[in-house]
Design brief:
Elements lengths: L6 H16 L9 E2 L7 H8 L6 E9 L2 E8 L6 H8 L5 E2 L2 H8 L16 E5 L8 E4 L5 E5 L1 H8 L2 E3 L5
């Protein structure tokens, strides 16, 4: 593991610290950088020695021109038709890499659940609550941080949702 070096990683750590400053019960989450990038949930789980379900994938969708961040357990895929119906929209569109970077400031494969230029509407997969500790991306593909489900809800102001097919 390496010390923080990328501005995106620093922005994510600052957002985590700011969330902790607002709540005295903060968890003190620390972003770490792995030696190599982990672009998938499987790769991240292998590098960290955890179950793939403990990885919180950050997926950006475009909904009527606005970003929607879905934090989903690495053990399954987002059911876009279900999420669209739950949100009352006709369709979720997979965002382009340019759209993702425009709205998060971060590259696909390293999108963190926070630390974006502006807040992004966020849903969090209720399946992540099955784990005592989950891991989220830290702004670049080699950066991650450990967090609990409750802490992730708190620091992102996300809405819990079932995002996979039942």
């Amino acid at each position: 593991m390496r010390p923080m070096s990328h501005p995106n990683v620093t922005a994510v750590q600052h957002a985590l610290d700011a969330a902790d400053a607002r709540d005295s019960a903060g968890a003190g989450c620390r972003v770490i950088e792995l030696d190599d990038g982990v672009h998938t949930a499987v790769a991240a789980a292998q590098a960290l020695g955890v179950e793939v379900g403990q990885i919180a994938n950050s997926l950006i969708f475009e909904v009527d021109g606005e970003p929607l961040l879905v934090l989903t357990s690495g053990r399954h895929r987002v059911d876009t038709a279900k999420v669209a119906a739950d949100l009352g929209v006709s369709k979720l569109h997979r965002a382009t890499p340019e759209f993702v970077r425009e709205h998060t400031g971060q590259p696909i494969g390293g999108v963190a659940p926070l630390g974006h230029p502006k807040p992004v509407r966020t849903l969090i997969d209720t399946a992540l609550a099955d784990y005592d500790q989950i891991w989220a991306a830290g702004g670049v593909p080699r950066a991650v941080f450990p967090v609990t489900y409750a802490e992730l809800l708190r620091v992102t102001s996300a809405t819990p949702a079932q995002v996979a097919a039942a």
